[in-house]
Design a protein that fits this description.
Shape: globular
Number of domains: 3
Largest sheet: 4 strands, mixed
């Protein structure tokens, strides 16, 4: 992600900030300009953005719930911002816990949309495509009068992504991470994985690129239900790290695609952040040249997966070492084998040839 600063006073800002802590200006994110801007009220709900001379803006209505800081042109016929207009079902906000969890989910979802828009990927709402447009249901487990619990399963079906609100509870998410043997389980990771299924439909199936996909990931016509059952019963192959980015990716070609897609987004977004901070890796060890790296390219635009991986690997070694110094788990606890590099290269090519901007 890019770095942001207040146009009024120069204070460094986080993507999620809604007010500049130094000068008090309200802040709004302008997705078309990919910038966070200090804004000044003009008339009622109309605002002027200091980052541009473009026409006036309005805030997304979800700003009133403190779940969104995105803006859209004041004369836009759209009501919600580019991220929130994809919401299909939001939680019952009369429950304060639901609101707190929804804020965490929206934080992750807006980060996701930052990346999708930076990549120029095609995005349709349910209004534009009622059958398969991208939409989100944020749901909670239901308990009937007899105390029976109906669990909400996080997943994707024909463009509709369902997220269990319980995932926003840190303790519950850690419990599930441990139970499922996952070294990495985050809200943003969920969004990136599930949206991978959506883009498989759009960019592979609907674009007639199945043969190219099968050459890299295998035949998706394998029975999906049976494949998942086999995975949960038997676990991954003993040598799975030679060919897959995660153990879950071994379950079925669709899951391999979604997991690899998620990691591709992890990598390009983190590399952009490293580039914005001017980070370089140059360890003071003998024969350490292979660990040197500098992000001197735009990871969202490069056609070279080699540049991405050759920079990513030294960077992960460095940040993992920093985390260990703080007694924390590795930031990126994964092995990228040559086969996984090939799959990531497929993703990069797929994305770069699918831009609609």
């Amino acid at each position: 992600m890019k770095l942001f600063e207040c146009q009024a006073c120069g204070q460094p800002l986080y993507f999620e900030n809604v007010v500049c802590e130094r000068c008090g200006h309200r802040l709004g994110y302008l997705p078309r300009l990919t910038t966070l801007s200090a804004v000044e009220q003009q008339d009622g709900e109309i605002w002027r953005a200091l980052a541009t001379t473009e026409p006036l803006y309005k805030f997304c209505p979800n700003a009133e719930h403190a779940v969104c800081n995105w803006m859209l042109p004041a004369d836009s016929p759209e009501t919600f911002c580019a991220a929130c207009r994809h919401n299909n079902t939001i939680p019952d906000l009369s429950n304060p816990e639901n609101l707190a969890h929804w804020r965490k989910l929206e934080n992750a979802k807006h980060h996701l949309f930052y990346t999708l828009l930076r990549l120029g990927l095609p995005l349709e709402t349910r209004k534009q495509n009622p059958e398969e447009g991208l939409a989100f249901d944020f749901l909670t487990d239901q308990v009937d009068a007899a105390g029976n619990v109906t669990k909400v399963l996080t997943g994707h079906a024909t463009g509709l992504i369902t997220i269990n609100l319980a995932e926003a509870d840190d303790a519950e998410r850690e419990k599930r991470r441990t139970a499922m043997g996952e070294p990495y389980r985050t809200l943003l990771g969920h969004f990136r994985h599930e949206v991978g299924h959506y883009f498989w439909d759009r960019l592979v199936r609907d674009a007639n690129r199945l043969e190219e996909f099968r050459a890299v990931f295998g035949d998706e016509q394998e029975d999906y239900g049976a494949a998942l059952q086999r995975h949960y019963q038997n676990g991954p192959p003993a040598d799975w790290q030679a060919n897959y980015v995660s153990s879950y990716a071994t379950a079925h070609p669709w899951e391999d695609f979604a997991e690899t897609w998620a990691h591709y987004l992890h990598i390009v977004d983190t590399l952009e952040t490293a580039r914005a901070f001017g980070l370089k890796v140059r360890p003071r060890i003998k024969e350490g040249a292979e660990l040197q790296a500098e992000v001197d390219f735009n990871p969202y635009r490069t056609s070279s997966i080699e540049d991405i991986i050759e920079t990513w690997l030294p960077l992960t070694y460095a940040v993992n070492s920093l985390n260990r110094s703080m007694g924390q788990p590795d930031l990126y606890p994964f092995i990228i084998s040559p086969t996984v590099v090939e799959k990531l290269g497929y993703m990069n090519n797929l994305v770069q040839t699918s831009r609609v901007e």
